[in-house]
TrEMBL record:
SUPFAM superfamilies: Macro domain-like (SSF52949). PROSITE patterns: MACRO. It comes from Aporhodopirellula rubra. This is O-acetyl-ADP-ribose deacetylase (Regulator of RNase III). It holds the Pfam family Macro. Coiled coil: none annotated.
Length: 206
């Protein structure tokens, strides 16, 4: 059973926020905030739409490091070297403490190996799903709980994924988080695959 979280979806542009509202409509405990990272109120965990090497010097990652300090990036890179032999796969995520009690954690969640287009792929889903699982594992095992989780528009920057598709894949991941399967069979797999790769009858990811 999924453990409840308060999901904040942020972006500075109204168009992306509208896409979030459209795709997450009816899903519980979701708040859409038109905001930059720097202007967010206190929260428990911010998800970084990262690259596989933890080089956090551009985009929203750079804003995170300006706020928390470069030691956070060094710790992230050390974990990537120690736990992933220097390259964190897409579809994985880990929770790293920031040292700031008002913003105590980040989830480092690559959407791409290196900056470049991921349009037409399911990498937004994979990174969002991995982030939700990392938070779930933390909540299940740690005394320091994560209640509020902030997601940017995964893959919308350097990844070049259109806003509606970003919101669609992220919403599918959250739906799957909220409703895990009770059995493993091919019917379940086929339904999940169609939800990820198709928007109605239109195939949008390869």
């Amino acid at each position: 059973m999924a453990l409840p979280i308060d999901l904040w979806l942020i972006h500075p542009e109204a168009e992306m926020c509208d896409a979030f509202r459209d795709r997450f409509n009816g899903l519980p405990r979701v708040t859409v905030i038109q905001s930059r990272f720097e202007d967010l109120p206190p929260h428990d965990c911010f998800v970084t739409a990262a690259n596989a090497f933890g080089i956090m010097n551009a985009g929203i990652d750079a804003a995170v490091i300006r706020f928390h300090g470069e030691d956070l990036m060094r710790r992230v890179q050390t974990r990537i070297m120690d736990e992933y032999l220097g390259e964190q796969p897409i579809g994985t995520s880990f929770i790293e403490p920031t040292g700031n009690p008002n913003y105590p954690f980040i989830a480092h969640s690559p959407t791409m190996r290196v900056p470049g287009s991921i349009e037409g792929t399911d990498k937004v889903y994979a990174a969002t799903w991995a982030s939700l699982l990392a938070v779930y594992r933390h909540k299940a095992s740690s005394q320091t709980q994560i209640e509020s989780v902030v997601f940017p528009a995964m893959g919308a920057g350097f990844g070049g994924v259109p806003f509606p598709e970003v919101a669609r894949q992220m919403a599918v991941a959250y739906r799957h988080y909220l409703s895990p399967p009770h059995r493993m069979d091919w019917d379940m797999v086929a339904a999940r695959q169609r939800a990820i790769h198709y928007d109605g009858k239109h195939q949008v990811t390869r």
